[in-house]
Specification:
By secondary structure, the protein is an alpha+beta fold. It starts with a helix and ends with a helix.
């Protein structure tokens, strides 16, 4: 009997294994770092390895008989955990070991804020061969690397040689430096283009990831002969090769028949006495959207619109001579040189293009300007002035900083910084209040800021609204954000603030309300009872300050909060990224590009409103009539499939404002809608804002710190 029972248990166990084997388990997503790419209701049908997506494969090449696979790993039914484990252990050994040692919560954020490998130039350089051969156009090397990014004074400073006698000697040294800088670039036979041969791949790979000093230490410590001969000069040569190759890759991408449209975003910023001009490009290759850094270079001429236009046109002419056929969008912030509706840089670039170009004024920048106006109005301007004075005062109190172990953030003109200051003050309110009282009682000290209960109440109330806005701004900074998604995020932000304070539109019911029962601003109002509930929900400390003021001040606080909230809502409502040629909000918004929006549009309207206005543009970039007709037919097929196929309809219905363009279209594993996707990808290249440029400037200021003042422009670009 025992043997029989044991055999039954064994049989049931094997049967259970057979039944469950091949099904998707929710634990796979975190356990093996997978991204679900196709789903039919609750049933997962396909997944992608995130290690491949963000880091690429790292497979030893020694003793291999076949070329190593470089594509991303996808899994489909039946799912096998043993194959997943084998893949990550064999293809991503180092990153898998690092990932496996983390806790569950740390694994959940392991892949956040990472750039996909396809968005980096390392993806296009084969580092595994014994020799690297790179080919670059003559214009890229001579004009961009040899002219626009070659500063003789920096090259001389890098020599640390003060023995320069006269202009003639200086010119001879500069010419010698130029020859040395481009020693690795050899003209091709016939003189059309340059070839660079890198025979010491390991040294090249380390040089572009480190500095010469680190390489020298590595060579001496590891006694590696392959690293011999490294120097500052060679590292600079390698950097020029890397930058030249990166620009050549971008040039090839822009010239590709797969790319029918691309968009630009650019801006300038001053750092350590030098103005840097940063340019980014968004392109769609084979239906996949990419946000790529193009170049960051110094700008020494006067910062006029004509000079900036000339520099941009010179750069783009070198990159791709027919760029005017493909330019579809130009995005800038609100700086006057860029935004002028008659001679601004944006308008000048639009005039260069052969077809209609979407003009974008950065949405977050518009929001920033509006919030500043509303904040400056609070309590007649005294509230923000006190906040600034408090921030400045606390930063100078070394004893308080030592006790707390941190410094109060600096209050700048950016309201995001104001949010950091308010969070700091609220979290440490008792300690700050006690410290200020003690300092006030000590003789001989300058009077510290006096924080009233009225100020504290407004701080608690405003900080909560600003914290919600800060969270939304982080989402607006996504590199793959679309214009339609930015519009949705701003609407969600407005709805959140409106619901939190119960702000309502003025209607017929409003006329019957007593004047003393509400706060009105423009066409919105909020009841005082709702404002009082909002204050009550701010917590115990806020309640103590509420009880410390009289009824008159309580009314002032409620009215101030109400007017502030409505003012913020009004500013959000005025944000419109798309602009017309006179820099006013455009009447015609960008067409839909996401599957969820496309299935809501009739075929006739899609043809008349989306395809027809862009037919000439498509023809100019080598699209045939058959390809354009395929867009129409695939849209009709998408509508039919959405109505009849429950799996496709559930996939599309599950997509929302958080779904990326690539993620939304990757959900269709087959290529039924490939031509439609390629067309929509070109439309989606337009930058919704200029936060990618601001991110580049943050990197620039981090890399070019006080200890790296002599970093060459080409080396800085190599870092990018």
């Amino acid at each position: 009997m025992r043997a029989t029972s044991a055999s039954v248990v064994s049989h049931l166990s094997r049967l259970s294994f057979v039944i469950t084997r091949g099904r998707w388990l929710t634990s796979y997503k975190r356990k093996y770092g997978l991204l679900v790419t196709e789903q039919d209701g609750a049933r997962v049908k396909a997944a992608r390895c995130k290690f491949c997506k963000y880091f690429g494969r790292t497979v030893p090449i020694h003793n291999r008989k076949r070329k190593a696979c470089t594509t991303d790993q996808f899994y489909s039914e039946p799912f096998r955990a043993d194959l997943m484990k084998k893949h990550v252990e064999g293809q991503h050994a180092n990153k898998w070991g690092e990932y496996n040692a983390l806790s569950s919560s740390e694994q959940d954020v392991f892949f956040e804020n990472l750039q996909p490998r396809a968005n980096t130039m390392f993806c296009y350089v084969d580092m595994e061969r014994d020799e690297i051969n790179l080919v670059m156009s003559t214009k890229i090397v001579d004009v961009i690397i040899g002219d626009m990014m070659f500063r003789p004074e920096d090259e001389l400073n890098a020599l640390e040689d003060d023995d320069v006698a006269g202009i003639g000697d200086c010119n001879r040294k500069i010419e010698k430096l130029r020859r040395g800088a481009f020693q690795l670039f050899k003209l091709k036979e016939g003189g059309d283009g340059y070839v660079v041969k890198i025979k010491t791949v390991m040294r090249f790979k380390l040089a572009i990831q480190n500095v010469a000093a680190t390489l020298e230490h590595t060579k001496s410590t590891c006694n590696m002969a392959k690293l011999s001969g490294i120097s500052d000069t060679l590292v600079r040569q390698y950097m020029r090769v890397l930058v030249g190759h990166a620009l050549q890759v971008m040039s090839d991408i822009l010239a590709s028949f797969d790319v029918w449209a691309f968009a630009l975003s650019f801006d300038g910023s001053q750092h350590r006495g030098t103005t840097f001009f940063d340019v980014r490009a968004r392109v769609a290759v084979n239906g996949v959207l990419y946000n790529l850094h193009l170049i960051t270079m110094p700008h020494f001429d006067r910062h006029t619109t004509a000079n900036q236009e000339a520099m941009l046109v010179k750069l783009l002419d070198v990159m791709y001579e027919f760029w005017t056929r493909k330019l579809i969008g130009v995005t800038i912030d609100g700086e006057r040189t860029n935004m002028g509706h008659q001679n601004g840089v944006q308008v000048r670039m639009v005039r260069c293009a052969l077809f209609n170009v979407v003009q974008i004024w950065c949405g977050p920048h518009q929001l920033d300007l509006g919030v500043k106006e509303v904040v400056d109005e609070v309590d007649g301007g005294t509230w923000v002035k006190t906040s600034y004075t408090l921030s400045t005062y606390l930063q100078k109190q070394s004893n308080l900083i030592t006790k707390m172990g941190e410094t109060c953030p600096k209050k700048t003109n950016c309201w995001l910084a104001l949010g950091s200051v308010l969070r700091f003050c609220i979290a440490r309110a008792p300690r700050i209040t006690t410290f200020l009282d003690e300092r006030r009682q000590q003789a001989g000290n300058a009077d510290p800021p006096f924080l009233t209960s009225r100020w504290w109440l407004m701080t608690y109330a405003i900080a909560l609204i600003i914290s919600i806005m800060n969270e939304m701004v982080v989402k607006l900074q996504a590199h793959d954000l679309l214009i339609c998604q930015q519009r949705q995020l701003l609407k969600l932000l407005a709805d959140d603030i409106r619901d939190m304070l119960a702000v309502r539109d003025v209607d017929d019911e409003f006329d019957n309300l007593p004047f003393v029962d509400y706060v009105r601003r423009d066409n919105n109002f909020v009841l005082l009872t709702k404002l009082r509930e909002y204050v009550d929900d701010l917590g115990t400390r806020a309640k103590q300050h509420w009880l410390a003021i009289d009824a008159n001040e309580q009314m002032i606080v409620l009215q101030t909060i109400g007017r502030f909230a409505i003012g913020i809502l009004n500013r959000i409502a005025t944000v419109e990224a798309e602009r017309d040629p006179t820099n006013n909000a455009a009447d015609n918004l960008e067409p839909p590009v996401m599957p969820k929006d496309l299935v809501a549009m009739r075929s006739a309207k899609f043809i008349s409103d989306v395809i027809e206005p862009r037919k000439e543009h498509l023809h100019a970039t080598a699209w045939t009539d058959d390809q354009i007709n395929a867009i129409e037919s695939e849209h009709r097929e998408l509508l039919t499939t959405y109505r009849r196929d429950g799996g496709i309809s559930s996939i599309i219905d599950d997509q929302d404002h958080t779904t990326t363009f690539n993620g939304a279209w990757d959900a269709f594993r087959d290529s039924r809608f490939h031509q439609l996707r390629c067309f929509c990808a070109g439309l989606a290249t337009v930058f919704p804002n200029s936060t990618s440029i601001e991110s580049d400037f943050s990197i620039l200021k981090w890399e070019l710190d006080e200890f790296r003042k002599c970093l060459l422009d080409v080396s800085l670009e190599g870092i990018f």
